[in-house]
Amino acid sequence: MKILIVEDNKKLASFLLRALAEEGYVVDLVEDGGVAITQSRSISYDLVILDWMLPSVDGLTVCRTLRSTGATMPILMLTARAEIQERVAGLDAGADDFLPKPFDLGELLARVRALGRRGHGDRYLEVGPVRIDRHERTVTLSGRRLDLTPREFLLLSYLVREAGRVVPRTELLQKVWELSFDPGSNVVEVHVKNLRTKLGEHAARIETVRGVGYRWQNEA
């Protein structure tokens, strides 16, 4: 799943980003409600984790605006507001679920999985011989299950999701390793090499575009 976190508390935002990425999700983070609205119009998200109290535009307004523009992804609101009237207001605005702060990480991940099952009708992503189970986070290749590490799963899922498009190395570092800069290491190359080994005869489907990045090819 591709998740948007909208949270202005830097410590909590960093914690959520790291925890969800470790679970194999593709995660974007913004700190402002107005930016969240703009970004959601140009990027297709499977889930939004939305703080109620935000600068510029509050979470309730973000929720209403997204729904008014036809957005259908599940929205999980994080809030310190426990009063029933406020929860009703959030649900009426279009939220699917609430999680009061402070919360347990295990409960948050369980709610994310539940909302993912509810909101993602296309549980499986199938491109060529690859079938990715978004719920179980498993991959089969021509019917054979691949034994992937969480990071390899995330890398392969991202390339397959963007099949046919050259994905820059910098984008992979950001989306798969949550790095906003290039550390100068060969971490991407090492993981691509490992994936190709596990893909076997289909290794050539991951094409290297020199000086740019990588592209998943439907036809090898």
UniProtKB/TrEMBL annotation:
<feature type="DNA-binding region" description="OmpR/PhoB-type">
    <location>
        <begin position="122"/>
        <end position="218"/>
    </location>
</feature>
<dbReference type="InterPro" id="IPR001789">
    <property type="entry name" value="Sig_transdc_resp-reg_receiver"/>
</dbReference>
<dbReference type="InterPro" id="IPR039420">
    <property type="entry name" value="WalR-like"/>
</dbReference>
<dbReference type="Pfam" id="PF00486">
    <property type="entry name" value="Trans_reg_C"/>
</dbReference>
<dbReference type="InterPro" id="IPR001867">
    <property type="entry name" value="OmpR/PhoB-type_DNA-bd"/>
</dbReference>
<dbReference type="InterPro" id="IPR016032">
    <property type="entry name" value="Sig_transdc_resp-reg_C-effctor"/>
</dbReference>
<keyword id="KW-0805">Transcription regulation</keyword>
<keyword id="KW-0238">DNA-binding</keyword>
<protein>
    <submittedName>
        <fullName>Response regulator transcription factor</fullName>
    </submittedName>
</protein>
<feature type="domain" description="OmpR/PhoB-type">
    <location>
        <begin position="122"/>
        <end position="218"/>
    </location>
</feature>
<dbReference type="InterPro" id="IPR036388">
    <property type="entry name" value="WH-like_DNA-bd_sf"/>
</dbReference>
<dbReference type="InterPro" id="IPR011006">
    <property type="entry name" value="CheY-like_superfamily"/>
</dbReference>
<feature type="modified residue" description="4-aspartylphosphate">
    <location>
        <position position="51"/>
    </location>
</feature>
<dbReference type="Pfam" id="PF00072">
    <property type="entry name" value="Response_reg"/>
</dbReference>
<keyword id="KW-0902">Two-component regulatory system</keyword>
<keyword id="KW-0597">Phosphoprotein</keyword>
<keyword id="KW-0804">Transcription</keyword>
<feature type="domain" description="Response regulatory">
    <location>
        <begin position="2"/>
        <end position="116"/>
    </location>
</feature>
